[in-house]
């Protein structure tokens, strides 16, 4: 699977997510490793959710995770806190903002 195909699946999965409990603003850059390697960002700002396939230089937190583990997180099969604890996910920056991602998964 290419990054573009993977990204589209992720975007489709989250586009209708309930962001009412997510801190505004939240800017997360996600670096995907593995077969579908690439970078995208998730931004909640002004009550709107944006997911775009670009680097976000004004991010709150940067997350690096494999394509396989991120999909497990996105589908609720892997808790992001456990992924971080066991080294399957790395985060740099505001870890509180990284936890906001968990609120999108519900």
Report on the architecture of this protein.
By secondary structure, the protein is of the alpha+beta class. Helices cover 35% and strands 30% of the residues. The chain contains four helices and five strands. It has helices spanning 3-14, 67-74, 80-85, 95-105; strands at residues 26-33, 38-45, 48-52, 61-66, 89-93. Strands 3-2-1-4-5 form a five-stranded mixed β-sheet. The model has no long low-confidence stretch (mean pLDDT 94).
Write the layout of secondary structure elements.
Elements: H1 3-14, E1 26-33, E2 38-45, E3 48-52, E4 61-66, H2 67-74, H3 80-85, E5 89-93, H4 95-105
Parallel strand pairs: 1-4
Antiparallel strand pairs: 1-2, 2-3, 4-5
Please sum up the structure shown.
The protein has 106 residues and is α+β, with helices and mostly antiparallel strands.
What are its keywords?
5-stranded mixed beta sheet, 106 residues, globular, alpha+beta, 30% strand
Structural class per helix/strand content? alpha+beta
Tell me about the largest β-sheet.
5 strands, mixed
Which percent bin holds the helix content? 25-40%
Shape: globular
Q: Tell me the radius of gyration.
A: 12 Å
Per DSSP, the total helix count is 4
Average pLDDT reading: 94
What share of residues are in beta strands?
25-35%
List the secondary-structure elements in sequence, H or E: HEEEEHHEH
Major sheet strand order: 3-2-1-4-5
Distance between the termini: 26 Å
Low-confidence stretches: none
| Secondary structure: number of strands | 5
